[in-house]
Amino acid sequence: MITLKDIAKAAGVTAATVSRALNDEPGVKESTRHKILALAKEMNYTSGLAAKRLTQSKSNSIGLIWTPPSGLFFNHFCNAIQRHAAQRGHYTLVSFAQPDEAMNHLNEHLVEKIVFWCGPGWKPSLEFLQAKQRFQGSMLVIGGGSLEGAHRLSIDRKDAVMKAVKHLAELGHKRIAFVGVATDKLMGYTLGLLENRLEYDPDFFINVHNWQLKEEHIANLLIHNDKSSRPTAIIVDSHGYLFPFVQIIRKLRLRVPEDFSLVAYEIIPEMEKLLEVPITAVGPSFDLLAEQSVRLLVDGVSEDTEDEWYDQTIPSEMVVRQSTAKVTE
Is 117 helix (H, G, I), strand (E, B) or coil? Predict the structure, then answer.
């Protein structure tokens, strides 16, 4: 059976270019497109779903796989994907099923472009790999994971937290605590302290177990300690931890930024409304991430590059608001 790679080899281009040409997508020179179409016809290329796409109208759809669908960032990112896709004449199909099942569903709907959000530790199952092998379009992996034969946009969470530490250090904070878990964000916290010549205090790391943030840990950190040894600033590593954290400090009658400055990871609109003052936030822009995802899948990789698969790290941003202030002690 003739494959995309066979046509690519005969045409002297990449398999991704062949896929775009056969699906009448942008990013392919007309002369190259005509050459590929002629070769496909000459070689009797009739492979599964790709063959159907040559005889049926294009679906102009972008599939989004996200399992499980949790967190406010997901909501905003999904809406942004839909908005940017619509601007380019595409619509969005979202699957909350397990990745292998989601791939099968999107294949059945002849979806030609897929955004797959998966974490750094995700490993594909045999069923997923089989479903992906049947998929003839373009796939983009986001969230930290990687997959052979797919584009990738990674998020520099470590750099985001390093920016948070630097911002607080520039305001005069020398005792900065971190609330979260041991991930690359914690590494960013420790590297940020080192970069700004601040001491690491193990008591200033509140390790959250099973999403359960305990009031006693926050009270020990911010109330029971001698004032001269308490942190003057705290970084919370996600809005999932921030919500219970806010409930606890309200119960303890602590105020931001009067009692301590606060920075949270995740730039989402809710950061402006959760407290009496808007919260300073770091992280990737969900709108920029969505825009680049749609642009990459619709426009494809430029023919000027030698790489068949696009791999880029999205830079983190910082939005400074009233929850951070200069040290007054």
Answer: strand
CA distance 316 to 76: 17
Pick from 174, 156, 152: nearest CA to 165: 174
Single-letter code of the amino acid located at 26: P
The CA radius of gyration of the chain, in Å to the nearest whole number, is: 24
Specify the residue for token string 């931890």. Answer: 241
176 and 231 Cβ atoms separated by less than 8 Å = yes
Question: What superfamily would CATH give domain 1-56?
Answer: lambda repressor-like DNA-binding domains (1.10.260.40)
For 157-284, CATH number out of 3.40.50.2300, 3.30.10.20, 2.60.40.200, 3.10.310.10 equals: 3.40.50.2300
Structure tokens at 227: 């004032």
pTM of the model: 0.78
d(CA 250, CA 193): 28
- Give dist(CA 32, CA 224) in Å, integer: 71
Task: Give 54-76 as a DSSP string.
Answer: HHS----EEEEEESS--SHHHHH
pLDDT per residue over 274-318, tens digit each?
999 999 999 999 999 999 999 989 887 655 555 668 888 888 999
- The whole-angstrom separation of Cα 16 and Cα 13 is 8
